[in-house]
Amino acid sequence: MSEQSSRPFSRRAVITTVAATAGAAAGGALVVNARGDEAPRPSGPERRIEPFHGAHQAGIATPQQRHALFVAFDLEDTDPVSGDRLSSERLAGNFRRLMERWTAVAERLTQGRLPGPMPGAGPQVPPDTGIADGLEPSRLTVTFGLGPDLFERVGRTDARPHRLEPLPAFRGDGLEDAWSGGELLIQICGEDLQVISRAFRALRSRAPGLARLRWTQQGFLGGFGDATPRNLFGHKDGTVNPRPEAFDAVVWADAAEEPAWFSGGTYLVFRKIRMDLPKWDTVTARVQDETIGRRRDNGAPLSGGHEFSTPDFGKKGPDGKPLIPADSHLALVRDVPMLRRSYNYDYGFQPGGAQDDDHEHDDGHDHGDGMPAHDESAHAAFDSGVLFCAYVRDPGEFVRAQNALAGADRLNAFIRHTGSAVFAIPPGAAPGEPVAAKLFPRT
């Protein structure tokens, strides 16, 4: 990713500037109570309402919230009553019905309203769990994505975004089916986990008969405010996100090169990356910094300056070696355009967890002084790391970067990619229409 400026800037301000119109709209929003009445509500980051409608879906240019839940679904293959395999026409109808339901629920919940009636349920079945009663929306956003296999299943291969292809296998991957792939994605973000849980349950409860749950992953960030968030290695994560003037060119798909219905859309690359925290926590600070290519304390490149200084990859130290190692993470990912909107995850100790059998990515632990012997059992037993989320106009840019990283990155000694997926993120919806409605134009 390009680092072209030595001028400090607020990371949150980058996305806030892009989303200025949405933020202004939210500033004077009203909350709708259970009776349907509109009433003024206090302002503040925990109580803000993020706009749902617009040219782009919320949850992308939106200033990043502290919590996220990623949920993947697949369309059902068979009729729930007869058991017959569904035709592409039936699947297309189910997809449209599902997006109508999900869009209606998302629109209402993000605006502080009840989710609406449960389709097909009797009058005694409550439309909502009640677990968020009395809570504000807390900047809730719901973002929908479509996987590579969906378009053939619903009979619209001609409308598949041109750069939507399954991600290839990368050297060192240890992918697990339990959290990879998916035909449909829901990204739910907000400042309150209970509000997010309510949204997930409301959306999931509208899926039976139409789609089945494939996987879920939950992430978090600290309350860093305008500062760049830190990952579980303690390093800043997202320093080189695009500036406002470059944001559109980096994130939104090129309308001239994509199907017309996809104008205003983007792509999301999702990777679950397990960190070997027991190993990382016992290496020297020098090993850690040289692995990343930046100082942990302030995020500055090892060539000097501050967090947003342009790295000098030719600058050498007293020993004649580059201050930023050529195989550091920073050196290998430079000039790769993407919006990182990643989250930490920590599922903690997993008793009886599967052992990693393939350690092709581990090169014998010779990355510097202070490297201890590696405890494989500890690494396998802890499931902690980062839910890497990159919004890009072309997933091929990520593939190029990951191929370079897989072959040489020092960081490979401390990480393992265990989940992988890519989705086309449709443009935003206008009032009264479902997300991705233009995929099936009315005749």
TrEMBL record:
Molecular function, one GO term: peroxidase activity
Keywords from the UniProt entry: Heme, Iron, Metal-binding, Oxidoreductase, Peroxidase, Signal
A Pfam family annotated for this UniProt entry: Dyp_perox_C
Biased segments, Basic and acidic residues type: 35-46, 356-376
Domain Dyp-type peroxidase N-terminal: 57-220
Ranges of residues in domain Dyp-type peroxidase C-terminal: 228-429
Region of interest (Disordered), residue spans: 27-46, 350-376
Reported cofactor(s): heme b
PROSITE patterns tied to this protein: DYP_PEROXIDASE, TAT
Similarity comment text for this entry: Belongs to the DyP-type peroxidase family.
Name this protein carries in UniProt: Dyp-type peroxidase
Organism: Actinomadura sediminis
